[in-house]
Each structure stands twice: as structure tokens, then as C-alpha cells.
Write a structure and sequence with these properties.
Distance between the termini: 67 Å
Structural class: mainly alpha
Radius of gyration: 20 Å
Order of helices and strands: H
Helix content: 55-70%
Largest sheet: none
Strand content: under 5%
Number of strands: 0
Shape: elongated
Number of helices: 1
Length: 62
Amino acid sequence: MSLFDDDLPKKKTVHEIGSDLSLLSVDELSARIALLTEEIARLEAERARKSASRSAAEKLFR
């Protein structure tokens, strides 16, 4: 390890659906679960926002 390793940008954790999980540690698996949980919350919030927008448009045009 170099003294300058801390200065390098950290690699962003990404998860590919269906990837091999056998090489990941428990901590890495926990990090991926947290990442995916946050992404699910983001997707659900966007779905709710779009659903509300659609409902408002349908009420307007009735």
C-alpha cells in the first residue's frame, strides 16, 4: 500500500443483478443490501410522485 492510497477516489459500489455473490464478504453483502434498499425507496418515491401526478391529471380532465 502506498501513502497516497487515501487520496484516490473510492470506487463506487455497484450491484449487477444476477452477479456472483460467492466472492463477497458479509460486509460487502451488507453494503449492497443497503444500496439496493435505498434504491428501492427512491423508486417507490418516484412511482408515488408519478401516480399522484397522473391522478391529478385524470381528475382535471373528467
